[in-house]
Amino acid sequence: MTPDFVLELGMPHLGRNNLSENALFKAIGNDRWNKIEEVGGVPTGQIRDDAGSRLYATFFFIEVHFTPEHPLAAHGENETMEFSTDLSHFGQVYLDGKHRLVSDPELWVRSSNVFIYQKGGPSKLSTSIPDNMDFGAIPELETLPDSLTLCRIARTSGAFFERESDDVDIFDGVREFTYQLDPDRDMNGAGLVYFANFVAFLDRAERGVLTDLAHPVPASVLDARSTWHRRIGYFGNAEATDTLRVFVRARMRGLPSERYGRLIDLGFDYRIVRASDDKEIVISSCRKVSPMEPGSPDEAWFEKMTSRVQDQLSTLR
Fold first, then answer.
1. 18-35 pLDDT, tens digit each
2. Which of 196, 170, 174 is nearest to 22 (CA)?
3. Residue 154 pLDDT > 90, yes or no?
4. Spatial distance between the Cα atoms of 29 and 69, rounded to a whole number of angstroms
5. CATH of domain 5-316
6. 21-40 and 197-210 helices, crossing angle to 10°
7. DSSP 8-state code for residue 12
């Protein structure tokens, strides 16, 4: 199979443990916009609606669908990732498609876009229909992409994923982390927070919360953790001067692994709220794995934490 998109992994694509999720989102996002330009017959910077407003194919949903045995960290420096891609539209407003690994099509990243314009700056966005873009080469969906439904359900429930039956909480309830936007690093050329950067904010909040516990997660676990499943829904954006309040829930379980012997499987739910007006702009749920070598300090921490939780549950019975 001839790939539609090839990504040569170098240092700009790597994080603490091989492939960076933030960098992958940027690469896939750029490829999606290139595809829109190719099939739509107009440069993305020139897409306009009938009122002449500049439109942006902003991302409103992303899903990473890998496996615990094959998380993003399975891909490292000097590796070539080859993807097959597809793209469909609904009503010339919504776009939806997947980047599938050619080597294993069951491993994929799905992304959904909606055409928007800035009605009143980054904090006030409205949808519109491109007037000068050709949709003839893009297959049309019969119904709205179900990613919209997934986002609506998550907004009601506060999460995309249910907890696993063997999950134990790393801490009780919800912890909050405050992130001040950096105008020079976090914003894109449209004056919006770039969609891929929200994942970096979630990672920062996650690390900040987990290292500030009475029994903090070891740095070795945090450095090795790698996403294997994520859904993220975007419901707004923010001004460059705004501050973000990130709310985190965290849980974990142990999983057997042919490659590592055993894995710590971490589960997270996140909500991002703009501090300026308390508007919820992002919801995400994620599972990440970190190798747990037998007899390692990481395994000792995991066993101590899970036994402590079990003891607390026994006391309550």
1. 999 999 999 999 999 999
2. 196
3. yes
4. 25
5. 3.10.129.10
6. 170
7. G
- Calculate Rg over the CA atoms of the chain: 20
Measured from the Cβ of residue 281, the count of other Cβ atoms closer than 10 Å reads: 19
Quote the pTM value.
0.94
Give the mean model confidence (pLDDT) for residues 53-66: 96
Report the C-alpha gap between 245 and 179 in whole angstroms: 6
- From the centroid of its chain, how far is CA 112? 12
Q: What average pLDDT does this structure show over 87-116?
A: 97
What type of residue sits at position 238? A
Backbone phi, then psi, for 111, in 5-degree steps? -140, 140
Helix or strand or coil: residue 88? strand
| Per-domain residue ranges of the chain | 5-316
Backbone angles phi, psi at 48, to 5 degrees: -130, 155
- pLDDT at site 312: 56
Which candidate, 71, 17, 24, 74, places its Cα nearest to that of 199? 24
Instruction: Determine the distance from the C-alpha atom of residue 276 to the mean position of all C-alpha atoms in its chain, rounded to a whole number.
Output: 23
CA-closest candidate to residue 81, choices 22, 28, 16, 17? 28
Q: CA angle, corner 94, sides to 92 and 95, nearest 5?
A: 100
Q: What is the pLDDT of residue 1?
A: 59
Contact 228, 71 (CB under 8 A): yes
If DSSP states are collapsed to H, E and C, what string results for 191-202?
Answer: CCECCCHHHHHH
Q: How far apart are CA 122 and CA 112, in angstroms?
A: 19
What would the pLDDT profile of 186-238 be if each residue is shown by its tens digit? 999 888 999 999 999 999 999 999 999 988 999 999 999 999 999 999 999 99
Beta strand spans in the chain (E): 5-8, 14-15, 18-19, 56-65, 80-85, 88-90, 94-101, 104-118, 125-127, 168-169, 175-180, 226-234, 243-257, 261-274, 280-291
Sequence-ordered list of residues with C-beta below 8 angstroms from that of 141, at least 6 positions apart, any chain = 88, 89, 90, 94, 96
